[in-house]
Amino acid sequence: MKNLKFYITGILGCFLVRILLFTLRIEHEPGGSLEKVKKSLNIYAIWHCTLLCLAYIGRNANIQVLVSQHSDGEYIAGVIKRLGFGVIRGSTTRGGARAVKALVDKTKAGYSIAITPDGPRGPRCVVQSGCIYLGKKTGVPILPVTVGMSNYWKLPSWDEFRIPKPFSRVLILYGKPLFIPPQLNDEEMEAYRLLLERTMCEMMKKADLLAQQK
């Protein structure tokens, strides 16, 4: 019964995502970034609250996504699989050895991966160290991507999950690739973690401002 519930939720969720986001006015900054990044190998770092829009933007690109093993992760996995993503279950911080190995293997096979560095349970907009470790381990650049919305609903969840309202404007803002050197001590790892966190927080504020101004 539980598996049937997840199956039905996945189908309905995918359908609703496609219908809702089809109505949006989506822009990319800088222009042409979407086509450019799809041709390169990246670790996409995205805030958990912006998953909905970016799942639609990155559909059918066979990007591998790290999804938690919590029950809510089961719902997310069901939806994004039907949007054309590969799914790796686990966390980079909790029981993460198997998940990290799977992510590393995927990058070696030529797949880009996407993670929410503040997931699966927060704190909101705080980068966890697992993201930096992946960049160090794989040699693949971390590409921060944030989303600004002109009008949206905010859910009462830990991440203040955002659902754009129909016909609103959405701006996808791409940062500069962040390369993590392979030989770093704990102090240097922390410096890169703080750099990524600060960059993504600043980008999100900028994206919101641009989406609301245009």
Automatic annotation (TrEMBL):
Pfam families: DUF374. Residues 58-124 form the DUF374 domain. CDD domains: LPLAT_DUF374-like (cd07983). The keyword Nucleotide-binding does not apply. The keyword Transmembrane applies. The chain crosses the membrane at residues 6-26, 41-58. It comes from the Bacteria. Keywords: Membrane, Transmembrane, Transmembrane helix. This is DUF374 domain-containing protein. It comes from Kuenenia stuttgartiensis.
